[in-house]
Design goal:
With about 280 residues, this protein is of the alpha/beta class. Helix content is about 25%, strand content about 20%. A seven-stranded mixed beta sheet has the order 6-5-4-3-2-1-14. It has a seven-stranded mixed beta sheet with strand order 7-8-9-10-11-12-13.
Length: about 280
C-alpha cells in the first residue's frame, strides 16, 4: 500500500488565506515544505481520502488521474474535506467520456450536505448517473474495490458524526488514517484493541500548542502512539506520521520534523509518500 499526502494543512491552509501572523509570513518566506494546501490523501493512486476545495490543484500538482478515480472516503462535512460544488463537474456538459460513476462513502451529515448543495447548484445533465453516495456505519467494515474499510468514530463535530478510517489492502497491510479528531472516543480505542496497524497517520493540528476540543497536538500524538504500542495494536515496525497542521501551531516544517523525529514520527508535507 502506498499512501500519498496531497495536502497537509487544516482548513485555512498554511500560510492561511488572509493571515499576516508570523507563522504565515515565515511559511511564505521559507516556501517548500512549509507551503501546505488543505488536507487530502490518496492510496495507491486509486482510493481518494476527502474531496476538499484544493482537489483541482492537487490534480495538477501531483498528476492525479481524477478521471480514473471512482471511490472517495470522506471523513466529515467540513468544507476543507468536502467541496460538493466540484462534483457537478463529473457530469455533462462539464465532463465527457465518463464511463464509471464516482462513489462517495461517508456519514449521514456528509450526504445531507451534498444533497443540499447539489439541489441549489446542479445545472448538469446527468449527475445522478455519475455520482453515488453510500452512507456507511461506524465499526462496520465494507469493501471498496479490494480494500476492506472500517469507519471508526472521531471526536470532532458536536452535532455531526465524523469518521477516521481503518484501511486494509489485499496483502493484509492496515492503515489507520486519523485526522480531524481530538483524543479518540472510548469505542474507537476498544475497537483498535483487536487490530494490528502497519501505519498510523495522526491529527497534529495544534502542533506543539495544547489540544483543543476537536483536534490533537503533538503531545497527544505521543500519548496515542504509546497507548497503541501498549495495547499491542502497533509495534516497532509500525510507521507513525503526523499530519493536518494549523498555522496556529506556530512552527516551521523543519521544527516539526526535528521534534517529531526524536519521538519516532515522520512529518507529512504536500507530496509526501509512505509505502506500507
Amino acid at each position: 500500500m502506498k499512501l500519498k499526502y496531497l495536502g497537509t494543512a487544516a482548513a485555512e491552509g498554511w500560510p492561511a488565506l488572509f493571515c499576516k501572523c508570523e507563522s504565515c509570513e515565515r511559511a511564505r518566506k521559507f516556501g517548500g515544505k512549509n507551503i501546505r494546501t488543505r488536507s487530502q490523501s490518496i492510496i495507491d493512486n486509486r482510493l481518494l481520502i476527502d474531496f476538499g476545495p484544493d482537489t483541482y490543484l492537487h490534480v495538477l500538482q501531483h498528476h492525479m488521474p481524477l478521471e480514473d478515480i471512482h471511490h472517495v472516503l470522506v471523513t466529515h462535512s467540513h468544507i476543507d474535506h468536502l467541496y460538493p460544488s466540484d462534483l457537478i463537474n463529473l457530469a455533462e456538459p462539464y465532463a465527457h467520456g465518463v464511463t464509471e460513476p464516482m462513489t462517495i462513502y461517508s456519514t449521514p451529515g456528509t450526504g445531507e450536505k451534498i444533497r443540499l448543495v447539489l439541489k441549489a447548484e446542479d445545472d448538469s445533465d446527468n449527475l445522478s448517473e455519475r455520482m453515488i453516495f453510500k452512507e456507511v456505519t461506524e465499526f462496520v467494515p465494507f469493501k471498496v474495490m479490494d480494500y476492506t474499510v472500517t469507519p471508526l468514530l472521531a471526536k470532532h463535530m458536536v452535532h455531526e458524526k465524523c469518521f477516521i478510517y481503518l484501511i486494509t489492502d489485499p496483502d493484509g497491510k492496515t492503515l489507520l488514517y486519523a485526522n480531524d479528531t481530538a483524543w479518540f472516543p472510548e469505542e474507537t480505542w476498544k475497537y483498535l484493541e483487536s487490530c494490528h496497524l502497519d501505519a498510523v497517520s495522526l491529527d497534529c493540528t495544534m502542533v506543539f500548542e495544547p489540544d483543543c476540543l476537536t483536534h490533537m497536538g503533538f503531545e497527544s500524538n505521543i500519548k496515542a502512539k504509546n497507548k497503541l504500542l501498549a495495547m499491542g495494536s502497533a509495534d516497532a515496525h509500525t510507521i507513525f506520521v503526523v499530519n493536518h497542521f494549523s498555522h496556529n501551531g506556530l512552527a516551521s516544517h523543519e521544527e516539526i520534523e526535528t521534534r517529531a523525529g526524536k519521538e519516532g514520527f515522520l512529518t507529512a508535507y504536500d507530496g509526501f509518500e509512505i509505502t506500507i
